[in-house]
Amino acid sequence: MKKRQAAVEGRFYPSTKSKILAQIEEIDNEARYESESFEINQILGAVLPHAGHLYSGHQTVPFFKLLRQHEIYPDTFVIVHPNHRGMGAPIAIDDSNVWVNAIGEVNTNHEFARAMELPFDHWAHAGEHSAEVIVPFIQYYLPDHPFSLVAVCMRDQSHESAKLVAERIEKARRESGQHIMVLSSCDFSHFISPDIGVERDQYVVNEILSRSSAGVERAVREHNLSICGYGPIMALMEYAMSVDTHYKIKILARGHSGEVFRSNEVVDYISMVIYQ
To answer: Dihedrals φ, ψ of 2, to 5°?
Structure first.
């Protein structure tokens, strides 16, 4: 059995179960963002950040609190994420059987992954943090509901590749009949002032809210944006469009690293839910 050991435990989040859970609980209790009540029939996915829990956890927890509030518990989370290290295939599924962290073990869904008919590539995922840091939040908020993972790493973040990933996710969903949820892992503008970051992020946010996946890539290229997971966002949007052409989007939380440690050069974090 091939196990994926945690690569950034002790750096992006604590190294023991008690400390990981305590930190998430502290972020949850702080409740930096008020929960708004709105009608949801089904949640198709979310855009979530992937920085250290201390920095971006405040933007992550509102989504998982929403899942628990509406008692929505997927069988499988498909985490589509960028490739920060530039290794491996352009699009690659993790080939591990189990993901291991200090909280415990999470099975991967190889049946679903094989049905996607995309390459498996260990090296694309080796050391990559952008899916790993989301997993402890799932473990915290769904402790009594078994779930599995499929991690899809996008070194090629073109619109064409995003459409392919979306098509293969939808194909596997139809064939398996499983209740899945697609999580798009993305940090927004990097290392610029908070004011400029909000302005530059808005180019992409506007395209997301208008449900234009092609517009996301266009905005990133035209404005030379440092958004590191725009490919996964487009994949989620294309998947949502294949399920429901009238899907809805709501911004849950928006902030930046300077809210934790004051700085004039921050990384922006935005969480969004895509739903019916």
So the answer is: -90, 125
Which strands make up the sheet holding 98-100, listed edge to edge? 3-5, 98-100, 105-107
Handedness of CA 189, 79, 254, 242 (dihedral sign): positive
The matching CATH number, chosen from 3.40.830.10, 3.40.50.300, 3.30.70.980, 3.30.200.20, for 3-275 is 3.40.830.10
Neighbours of 126 (CB within 10 A): 14
Spatial separation of the C-alpha atoms in residues 66 and 96, rounded to whole Å: 29
Encode pLDDT of 93-150 as tens digits. Answer: 999 999 999 999 999 999 999 999 999 999 999 999 999 999 999 999 999 999 999 9
Other beta carbons less than 10 A from residue 276's beta carbon: 14
